[in-house]
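hi!! sorry for the late reply, been swamped w classes. u asked for the two structures so here they r. pasted raw, havent cleaned anything up. first the sequence of the first protein and right below it the tokens
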Amino acid sequence: TVNPVGGGGGGGSCTGAGPVTITGTPDRVQSGGSTTLSWTVTDAASATCSVTNQNTGALVKTTAVSSCSATDSAAVSGVTAQTTFRLACGTLIKDLIVNIVPRFEEF
């Protein structure tokens, strides 16, 4: 049994099995809108986790892993198209899609 409790991050006590979660609040925005990404990683064997915008390749944020886990968030503004955000912690990868809500106009 692996016991991730104790000092030191990344080392032999972390198996890298996850899980990882990433959410967007909200996960549906109007074009040009903003969302807050939040992520949690447990049992990560890597030293850092990063979130990137897969549409543009831009780095959103890097988070240090401490005692096998990491929790963080970042605000993202100016979302103008359906966007995939990827959380990667070594071999642990999770994608989140933020969708655009169409604007309706009355006639």
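now the second protein. again sequence first, tokens right under
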Amino acid sequence: DSTPPENPGAFTGILSGYDSILLTWDEGSDNVALDSYSIERREKPLAGSYGAWYFLKSVGSGFNYTDDTQALGNNVTYDYRIRAVDTSNNYADSYKYIDNPVTYYNI
């Protein structure tokens, strides 16, 4: 199989408690079978610019992931992108970006 999968149609994130962000997405599709979703993240301080993208997690089943890998920074915006991966290790041709980046404010 050399056909890449299709990404999810929707990808969203919301604050979940004081120290995590809940990411949810619709199921992608493939001509054979999907294996996982590869999630990347970048961060932007209030008075700065976005840093580089980095790999966060490969999610093998389900359509959600709670990002609690580090304490959330005050006034930091978190941006995410996702790609579907099929059982032949083909990645979707492009990334699906989160609908709205999530900003954490500690009031």
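hope this helps!! also noticed smth abt the second:
The chain has no helices and eight strands.
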